[in-house]
Amino acid sequence: MLGGAIATVVMVMGTIAPAWAAQATWVGQLPRQTIVVSERPLESAPITLPPSAEQGEIANVRWVFETDTPAPTLKTWLCHGQLCLPLARSRGETQRFSGRATSIPFRLRFLWPPGKHANGNRVISGGQLIVDYRQ
């Protein structure tokens, strides 16, 4: 009898999805962008989720991108509406946008300030934005 009760509890618990689990994931390619030395930040084109995700709520965001050559003083932010998160690395993950509407586009913002390490242009490429969201 006890074995049957345990099996029932295990079966019921196995069908309950955890509250933090995302219902869907969207993977978008980040636009290739040339960054020049400037005193003002440069923003990417909007990165929008597909229409099927427009009524959703963000759970988690991951990003990855590459620069063609090292740019140690390059500053980067991931922005969603007016909320911008400074990125310490070219690869990472955050829940800072959790609960925000998926209908608002993302943008990357770059600043490569003048200085001794800032010469020539840098190209940002090979990037992806991965958004886990709930409908």
Give a topology summary.
Layout: H1 2-15, E1 24-29, E2 33-35, E3 42-43, E4 57-67, E5 75-80, E6 83-87, E7 91-94, E8 106-111, E9 122-134
Antiparallel strand pairs: 1-9, 2-9, 3-8, 4-7, 4-9, 5-6, 5-8
Q: Sheet bearing the most strands, described?
A: 5 strands, antiparallel
Spatial gap, N to C terminus: 40 Å
Number of strands: 9
> What is the percent of helical residues?
10-25%
Total helical segments = 1
Beta-strand content bin: 35-45%
How are helices and strands ordered from N to C? HEEEEEEEEE
Class computed from helices, strands and strand pairing: mainly beta
Quick one: overall form?
Answer: elongated
What's the Cα radius of gyration?
Answer: 20 Å
* Overall mean pLDDT: 83
Which residues sit in consecutive blocks of at least 5 with pLDDT less than 50?
5-18
What does this structure look like?
The protein is mainly beta and 135 residues long. Helices cover 10% and strands 41% of the residues. Strands 1, 2, 4, 7 and 9 form a 5-stranded antiparallel beta sheet that branches. Strands 3-8-5-6 form a 4-stranded antiparallel beta sheet, with no helix packed on it. The radius of gyration is 20 Å and the shape is elongated. The protein starts with a helix and ends with a strand. Mean pLDDT is 83; it is low at 5-18.
